[in-house]
Amino acid sequence: MEADGRPSWDNPAQFILACVSYAVGLGNMWRFPYLCQMHGGGGFLIPYLIMLVLEGIPLFYMELAVGQKMRLGSIGAWSAISPYLGGLGIASVVTSLYLCIYYNVVIAWAFWYLFHSFQAELPWAACPANNNLTEQQECEVSSPTQYFWYRETLNITSSMEEGGGLHRGQTVCLLMAWVVVYLCIVKGVKSTGKVVYFTTAFPYVVLLIYFIRGVSLHGAANGIKYMFMPKMKELASPTTWINAATQIFFSLGLGFGSLVAFASYNQPHNDVQRQAVAVSLINSGTSIFASVVTFSIYGFKATFNYESCLDRARINLLNSFDIEEDAITNDNISSWVTQLNSTYPDRFASLSQQLESCNLESELDTAAEGAGLAFIVYSEAIKNMPVSQLWSVLYFSMLLMLGVGSMLGNVMAITTPLHDSKFLSRRLSSEALNGLVCIFCLLAGLGFTARSGNYWFTIFNDYACTFSLLFIVFVEMVGICCIYGLKRFEKDIEDMIGHRPNWYWKIVWAGVGPIILIGLFLFYMITYITGETSTYQAWDKDLGKSLPKERPPYAQVCIALLPLSSILCIPFCAFYEYVQRKKKREPEERVVSCPLTPREAC
Amino acid sequence: MLTDLFLTLCISTALTAVQAENRCSVDAKNGYKVRLSIKTALGNKAYPWDDSEMFLFRATLAFAMRVYTKSDQYNVSSVHVCDETPRVSFWFVVSNDTELVSAEDVEKAVRISRNRINSAFMLTDQTLEFVNIPPTLVAPVQPGTPPWLIVFGVVISAVCAGVVMLLLSSFVQKRRKKGILEDENEEERCEKQNGATHEVQEGSDDFNQIFVEASSSTKL
To which protein family does this belong (chain A) (predicted)? Predict the structure, then answer.
């Protein structure tokens, strides 16, 4: 407890672990490897690390410094920076609210898969038999893992307009996810501080185990070679740099107010500069490590699929030409193909449609990101590993811990400003307040457990936070540098850690950072306006794949409203504050009163 | 005359036998192609395919027909095999005395006894294929409660227990704090007597504690 009664972390290690747990999340696992693959493998590291230095670390430091100095949640902290910036805190809270509502659904999915891993045979390993004791049509056309994801986990409808009912299994898993989050935050920093030891350490342990398992899998080397082979010409494309900047920005979780909230519980003279650099580097290092693991798994899966393809072709040849069983092997299949083609050209011609060409490169090229990577591609790789139940449990527990760790930060971004508000903290205890926030988010999130919920999830995932955060952080930088004053901020930091920030920090805060953010913001605006938001991928159960469909107009409206509802808080509050100030003419008179105590009255 | 009769009988049975055999051909209407992948299934322990194995196959197929029709009119001679290839695949037809058994009946018979046929050769549905007869999938074992619900129940009870314990402990702590404050308030209440009295507690210094407490709580 501090002198001003504010709760605090038991020791600085808890703060660092909380920041690491928050920053290292699902994006490190499922977005970074995809970007690496799309933008030239090892070469992507160059723009990634440059953006980390130019944008990531300084912004991270700035938010932590603000929180530690002001010792308030985002609303209070930014109001203290300047009364006109109170809206900034509110925008952060609104964005965090949207994130909390949809992010926990991913944890619900992880729970669902985790619970289903405790079976003798993994349910996504083979197609289930239907009433005729033959295979399900949808499963045959796609694959067992896709069937399990789209049909059994989501029970997805074929378009956004069809609502479908609530999926009961998903609903109870979402309830479970919120109860777990509540358990971790119920006592505020005191309970969170203890939980982060586990939520930070466990994913690293599992990643290490997976790394060892992954690199020893057959075919893993193909994947790792593919990843690390840099394709330098990708660096010339601006998309690569934009994606690198975006990834750094979102991976560190800037703009939500969580960092401000975490730092507000620090001791006043905590060395936040060193911690900021450490956490940012740990976050990026984890991304790179996770992508090595992911690529070894990719390599295994691609090699497995390639060899299965060769095997199918081999069996096809054996059966059509009735050749002795062990005459054709995977190695001499190509020589057999040429030989058979020359000896029986017409029979071979009729067969050639069925003979698929097997190509290892094209298997490795199939990139996936997001939920598709985590839940379809990985589970497909896992089911082919020996003792697959163990690997499945480990993997989905890791996803769970990564998700819960990030959720803790997001929920604290909402609860900290609420606790700071005297109005609420006088009427409700902190446990009740935390509980109300969780219940509200649970009820709001039930929509994502409906059968068409995944389509809405994609909307929220892509649009709820992206614009708003870029704008929020941009206003933060402008607020600090122009409205509050960079000199004043430097002095605050000197008060806290004993020395002023050097020229590198100042250049980024005042110049490079805002330029990069404006650039990103403009890029996303242009992408939005040129109409890339109008279609979405809908699952067609007869064809067994996703096809693009037009979004209905109410979905487009929703896409526009989500960022607007948080961005507009900033000008509204500034305007409101301006009007309030004009009204207040006289300063408040301070009334000093000394009520008589019962003892003095005697 | 008897020899004539005997001769015609012999010739007619031979003819029908030949006819039945002739009806076994590639793409026979009431026949099925069978494909065995012994080396894939058994690897090193693969047995060579020879006439005795073929005899076993014909016998098991006759067994399947007997089980299906619940009669004993089928024998090894009822099953005719042709077009053997090095792949180990061949066509077969089943004859019932003079005519061939229809394809549907053969299919049903095979599906019912599929397990027994497979195990006679230590093979599976995938390695002993009857082309165009789909494998009978094992009926899914439906447990009373789906297993995931059990795990879910255990985890959510543990988590709820944790939440309740934490809430109770903070409630008890607050109660205790309130209790201490109330005690302190009681002790500060002044009593209208000569001087303020206060019970001397054990181990305290020999002076009146109440003045010590009063000074720390006096609002100035």
Answer: Belongs to the sodium:neurotransmitter symporter (SNF) (TC 2.A.22) family.
